[in-house]
Amino acid sequence: MQLTAKHSELIESIYDAGLNPELWSDVVVMLNGFFGSRACGLISKDKVSKSGSTHYYCGVDPHFIQLYADEYAQHDPLARLPRYGEVRNIPDLVNFDEYRRGRFYQEWLRPQGCADVANAVLEQANSPCPMLMTVIPGKEMLNAKMRARMQLIVPHASRALMISRTIERKQQRSIALADIVDRLSAGVILLDAACNIVHSNPAADAILDADDVLRSVNGRLLARSPEANAALRIVFRDEAEVAAVAGAGRKIQLASRDGSHHIAHVIALPSLLREGSAGRAGGAIGALFVWKAKFDARSCAALIDRTFELTAAELRVLLSIVEIGGVPETADALGIADTTVKTHLHRVFAKTGTSRQADLVKLAAGFCNPLVH
Questions:
Q1: For residue 134, which of 123, 150, 145, 149 has the smallest C-alpha distance?
Q2: What is the reported pTM?
Q3: Could you give the CA distance from residue 303 to residue 309 in angstroms, rounded to a whole number?
Q4: Strand pairing partners for 44?
Q5: Position 280 pLDDT exceeds 50
Q6: Cα-Cα-Cα-Cα dihedral sign, residues 290, 294, 296, 297
Q7: Residue 292 and residue 186: Cα distance in Å, rounded?
Q8: CB within 8 A of 16, min separation 6: which ones?
Q9: What CA–CA distance (Å, rounded) separates 135 from 147?
Q10: Mean pLDDT for the stretch of residues 56-76
């Protein structure tokens, strides 16, 4: 079939809908006019249950759409799906005389004054619930002209649908990842190459609102310390520098007015997050994980206990060794004998794979890192 300017405009509209699914409703109306059919729609069909869901349609009374979903999808000849990309009408799929005696025709299609339905599977993958383009010609059966026009549109609709699916999957992953980031106890700040804040989670917002170690000035991140501020500018000047600093595990020390400290850990972003933040100029090129530098082994005692399956007595000894000191000090604090402390300590060493008290301090500190929780 020779393409005209009108055909090209329709195909462009199909790809526009691939980028913006809200346009599919208008495109279905355009397709219906192009085919010269009574009705047109995009539906998904479950291969096992034979149930169907209508996503976009025109030319069918909503009452019949609901009847299809509730009752007649299982009687639809589409229970036997055509192969991907092939336009098939009812006589192509089932015995036509038997079909006309069946419930789908007698109770659903015929009351609408229609005789035939044509369909094409739009998804190549072995989807359990593939998307179909379905067309109801009207009182007459599908003719050669309508079939040819449907066949012309199928590859474009298929590719546009694939684009929609890809965008949807990326958006879902971005939303899920953003939700995880927002739940972290550490502050997370996504920055572009000019240190503009692209995104900050609630914990980071609290740090910025305190206007101490870090603050936002017209959307740009500034550190209280001139040295830390200069370090931020150097690190976030480009993606390569961010990746190098992140790979080396270097951290930026942030001093507060009261003399306490925060730690800023540089993280290189995966491409998914960089793409998801492109709403602002340049997009995010890296992230800062920010938390207050403090050591509180008891706050993560439950996690240590679950990880190494310590007894209550062993956990008490471990925490005391970490917070108080050596065996004599622990024995005095817990009111037990030195030999009892040593017995529990040797068991803790065995369970945690350590051999020195200093190793236990490092282990507990690692569990207190908010990036580990």
A1: 150
A2: 0.54
A3: 10
A4: 53, 131
A5: no
A6: positive
A7: 8
A8: 23, 27
A9: 10
A10: 87
